[in-house]
Each structure stands twice: as structure tokens, then as C-alpha cells.
User: What shape does this take?
Amino acid sequence: MRKILEAFRVEGRNGTMVAVEGSTDVPIGSRLIARLHVPGKEIREVAAHKDRLRPSPLKESSTEGFLLVGLDNSEIKDGTMVEIRSHTD
Assistant: This one.
């Protein structure tokens, strides 16, 4: 599980972009599944796509970006963790 460092809305996109700690070799554009662990709520599963993070104060080499499809950024609270896995797992 990885900590969500930042969540923000991207104009014209259906979902919320998140910056998460850590990095993988998953290619940009990969179709994935994200399991969100929001404190005090049930685990929620949503479709996700790896995407580039735009310049941001939190952007570091050990940070990755994912678009969480259909999710509003208000649904991500402090302490939310995410598991990212391939769409075929």
C-alpha cells in the first residue's frame, strides 16, 4: 500500500489525479485497478491509469501519478492509502 501525497482535479478528465509515494516500472497509460483505503470507510475499488504528474511542489523522482477514474477528489481524506495493481491481476 502507498500513501497518497496529493489529490487534485484535472480539467476535462473524468476523475481525480493523485500523487503517490514510491515508483514502479509500470508504463504511462497502463490500465490498472486502485483499491482505496480511506480511514473510517470501506475499501473502494476504481479503475486507474498511470499518468504523468505535472510540475508540482510534491513531485519527486520517487513519486508517481495515477488518474482514478470517476472519483471526486473530495472522497480522498488525509491518511488515505492506495493499492495499485494491474487490470489483469
Summary: Residues 4 and 41 are 16 Å apart (CA to CA). The mean pLDDT is 88.
